[in-house]
Amino acid sequence: MRGEVLLMLRRQPGGYVSGEEISRRLDVTRTAIWKHMQALKQDGYDIEAHPRLGYRLRGGPDLLLPAEIEAALTTRRLGRSVAYFRCVESTNNEAKQLAAAGCPEGQVVVAEEQSVGRGRLARGWFSPFARGVWFTIVLRPPFSPQEAPKCTLLAAVAVCGAIRRATGVACGIKWPNDILYEGKKLVGILTEMSAEMDAINHVVIGIGINVNIAADDFPPELRSLATSLSLAAGRPLPRLAIFAAVLEELERVYDLALAEGFGPVLAEWRAASVTLGRAVDVSGPGRRFSGTALDIDDDGALLVATAAGVERVLAGDVSIRTPERKE
Amino acid sequence: MRGEVLLMLRRQPGGYVSGEEISRRLDVTRTAIWKHMQALKQDGYDIEAHPRLGYRLRGGPDLLLPAEIEAALTTRRLGRSVAYFRCVESTNNEAKQLAAAGCPEGQVVVAEEQSVGRGRLARGWFSPFARGVWFTIVLRPPFSPQEAPKCTLLAAVAVCGAIRRATGVACGIKWPNDILYEGKKLVGILTEMSAEMDAINHVVIGIGINVNIAADDFPPELRSLATSLSLAAGRPLPRLAIFAAVLEELERVYDLALAEGFGPVLAEWRAASVTLGRAVDVSGPGRRFSGTALDIDDDGALLVATAAGVERVLAGDVSIRTPERKE
Lengths: 327, 327
Fold this sequence. Notes:
- The structure is a homodimer.
- Chain A is an alpha+beta fold.
- Chain A contains ten helices and 14 strands.
- Chain A has three domains: about 1-60, Winged helix-like DNA-binding domain superfamily/Winged helix DNA-binding domain (Arc Repressor Mutant, subunit A, Orthogonal Bundle), CATH 1.10.10.10; about 65-270, BirA Bifunctional Protein, domain 2, CATH 3.30.930.10; about 280-325, SH3 type barrels.
- The first copy, chain A, has a seven-stranded mixed sheet with strand order 3-4-5-9-8-7-6, with helices on both faces. Chain A has a five-stranded antiparallel sheet with strand order 13-12-11-10-14, with no helix packed on it. A two-stranded antiparallel ribbon of chain A has the order 1-2.
- The longest helix of chain A has 22 residues, at about 240-260.
- The interface between A and B is medium-sized, with 28 and 28 residues.
């Protein structure tokens, strides 16, 4: 409801919307409208109330507030319930708790900042305040636990497509699910699941998108590895539009997998990949080798041609050998 | 510590143990001993305190209290931390919360009764007060999520072996992890995991053992399907000894898998199976067929010979055709 109020103010840029009109269009009392305006002001919106002309939006904070998300989204199921935090340890941890407590499919946990943002295998994820899109979505797919790794490829397809569409930045996917721009990481994805042996309880997909982070803002140890959309595009970019595009793409690709299986999703993954055809180094668990990335198989495993034959990689880290690194 | 006090009383059956001796052997003050005795009395132990002779245990409740478990266990890691409940909705749910909060490997959640005991795929599990061993154990195995189904075979091997050893009841394993006696279910196991795509966060293994349940105590719809150890043995059986034997076997088999991989565990599974070589009906997900159970493969999948060839079963229900049912 607050999102709809915001939307009415937005659609009248610079102009006034009368309380009477809002009351009529949304079928709520004037008192309720007044309360929504107070809440929006508390969230940092600059709203002018004129006794005769009504309400006017003069500006808002650059935050991913639930009302903004509600106003921006065109999805049917994903992101229709949002838990918002200014700062949280890890959106994945919050989402896992909500999922265990029975939240609906499509529940989103979004935070302006993560104090202990997590990447794969207990690595950290740099998540400064309001400089990225840090969120987790809960899915309850009817897939088997063996198919779960493909959910993470699915997420990469959605995020890569959404970023290209919303920003024009020509990013690509490194197996399994990092999004790179010119060899540096733009997005990290951490997928976790709760499952019985033959059925998934839920999957949480944590997505961290570096949006407006300057080169100097990254910790020194990340500067050669990470980049941001603003660095790639040469201008600040709107976090909300990117977030909405990602949720829309996620819904499209998830619905595709539900309707037709993973075949079309894996085809999109191949098309967006920057790994296939490249010389790669594979490390862990328990092995280390180099070769050429050939393809992914039906399980989402990476197939790597080596001197000893084709190796199948389902776990571990894959790094792409750049010509520079070869020197 | 309370377990050690209990053990000293137990080792002096019918006789007195002086407070002085307990104080010396356990290196605690007389006041501390007095507090332990009060706590044991509150738990239902009948302890006589004689001003000159000391303490004497006249009887105890038939409960799986942490002090009893501590006194009975010979394991190194498993069951060394116990969360005890008289009644809980589901020990798996409690264990998942403890695991997410970082409890140690081997943490056990035990309840005298489960109000919403769960079996696989949201089915129920009948768990009446103090009539069975209803517990869940938390493991943090270094296996990949793809290997998790083998943890459930591992649990079945341990429980089947422990029951045979502790009670003499000649039970067997139905794929993947039900323990049967004369075709009826003695034990159900529900294994759940939390995992990243290439690493397990934790596995919780819920084990429900029907110990002292009379035929009439089962709900009517279960009477043709379920049985108990007391029915099989023709006498009441000690829950604590069975529980301790299961934890000891679990530790042995888990250590075996950690040291040598799943090969030896799968061999033990085959030896304890009542499924292999039998005519079986397989149902779901999305298929239904009959055939002869041949073997399990390295992933723990059941291989079933059918007219159309060998089918590989990783999910779903397998029922064994008895001669009676064939008629």
